[in-house]
Amino acid sequence: VYAFDFKDAPKEITWAGIVHEVEMLHTLRLTEFLGDLPKTFIVGLVPFVIGSETTFKLSSEMLNALETALKAIETQLNAWGVQMQRTDHIALECIAELSYKGF
Questions:
Q1: Which Pfam families match (predicted)?
Q2: What residue numbers bound the domain in which 88 lies?
Q3: How far is CA 15 from the centre of its chain?
């Protein structure tokens, strides 16, 4: 799990990875160029490299890192004066299995 302010991105983050990273970077840079970038804190999990068989299931590494990612998000929200309250826990793997179907 990694977490950082967008304006203080570590040098190790190259943004040269998957298409989602590139799209996110372009969107953030354009928003910044237009002067409309809000406080932006990025929390990411290093994905498991999928071989030839693609799936919408989450790897055990992703599921195990989820709580750490949520704690990083909660810590940052608290620093901004926002209190987070978790309700109606839905397992992430359930969301992943349904999201691509449009649910």
A1: HycI
A2: 2-99
A3: 13
